[in-house]
């Protein structure tokens, strides 16, 4: 009998998400490929087998009776690395100020840019690491992280290097995104800054970023400027992503399809035409319900319509100083209770489809033979508990790369 490193036995539900290795749409999102009384065997960081009553000798056996076992959460949209905090903005939000009002008042991204420019490397690393620890504790085993609080070459690179250091020294895998075009710094005009991003920053992202993102929004970067930056990013091998139609519809959804982006994120205000183009091109729609929650907005992204139109949907925290949340369990709760996604859809969106949205579905996002053993064990009898039992951390055991962390 073969000896494995870890054998997890008798899970009430083993959620494998086994299925076609491409972004799941419509009804496919509801098929979690659950094995009841399921077991999973892990060796050398890799999944050896999933099934019932697996026959292996194991160095460690975990009895998962009564529990749910599933892939670690993948959080595909975070602004993990920033300095300081903006809790003072809550009073302004309560007075009715909008996100853009707060930005104009000296809060928002501008404020965090000041703090992040000032922060020493070690301090930025330390502050960000605490958040990454929190993510892991709540079951996130892989995340994406963006630059974007530097808005000058030196600080944008400082952030990307911090992401790299975190990735090298922390169990959570981090996929880096260059978001130099997150806002326009005070000292530059928009066109001067677009030129700086393209001519000075992008050439220096080599080896430090996989994706290029822009905040395509009224009053920030126009669709034309966004397109110019994302096309330039492609020349440096960076795959496009877009912050699209978060506050105003600027046809960001259509732009994502036109430019061949891997994902378009937010999509609160997107028009149907753009969403249909996304569906046609297979652009993943990343929903970030933490953002409207933190902004006390009444409306969330129309996830039901977006799914019905055939857009593959993923979920993410958007962790940032405006929406400070590391916990994907809470995001799933918001997705179900406020966006009317079903528990199964929300789980697919937080694991497999999330992995697709950062190009990692070959190795993570589902529990299948040969895939990386990134697994969480939750203290709940079935997957419907995830949006149902809220306000506690349901994750009990986290296995990253085949090791209990
Ligand atoms: O995705 N909208 C742009 N960027 C972030 C917020 C950044 C901030 O407010 O600091 C977002 O919501
Ligand atoms: Fe964001």
Tell me the name of the CATH class of the largest domain.
Alpha Beta
Indicate the proportion of strand residues.
Answer: 15-25%
Q: Might you state the CATH topology name of the largest domain?
A: TIM Barrel
- Oligomeric state as shown: single chain
- Report the radius of gyration as a whole number of Å: 21 Å
Give the CA-based shape. Answer: globular
Count of DSSP-assigned helices:
15
Mean pLDDT, nearest integer? 97
CATH architecture of the largest domain: Alpha-Beta Barrel
* Structure classification: alpha/beta
User: What ligands are attached or bound here?
Assistant: N-(iminomethyl)-L-glutamic acid, fe (iii) ion
Number of strands: 16
- Stretches with pLDDT under 50, minimum 5 residues: none
Provide the CATH superfamily of the largest domain.
Metal-dependent hydrolases
Largest sheet: 8 strands, mixed
For the terminal residues, how far apart are their CA atoms? 27 Å
Q: How many domains, in number, for the residues?
A: 2
Percent of residues in helices: 25-40%
Structure write-up:
By secondary structure, this protein is an alpha/beta fold. It has 2 domains: 3-72 and 365-404, Urease, subunit C, domain 1 (Roll), CATH 2.30.40; 74-356, Metal-dependent hydrolases (TIM Barrel), CATH 3.20.20.140. 35% of the residues lie in helices and 23% in strands. It contains 15 helices and 16 strands. Strands 1, 2, 3, 4, 5, 14, 15 and 16 form an 8-stranded mixed β-sheet that branches. Strands 6-7-8-9-10-11-12-13 form an 8-stranded parallel β-sheet. Helix 4 packs across helix 5 (153-169), helix 6 (190-201) packs parallel to helix 7 and helix 8 runs parallel beside helix 9 (272-281). The longest helix is centred in the N-terminal third of the chain and has 17 residues, at 121-137. It is globular. The two termini are 27 Å apart. Bound molecules: N-(iminomethyl)-L-glutamic acid and fe (iii) ion. N-(iminomethyl)-L-glutamic acid binds next to helix 3.
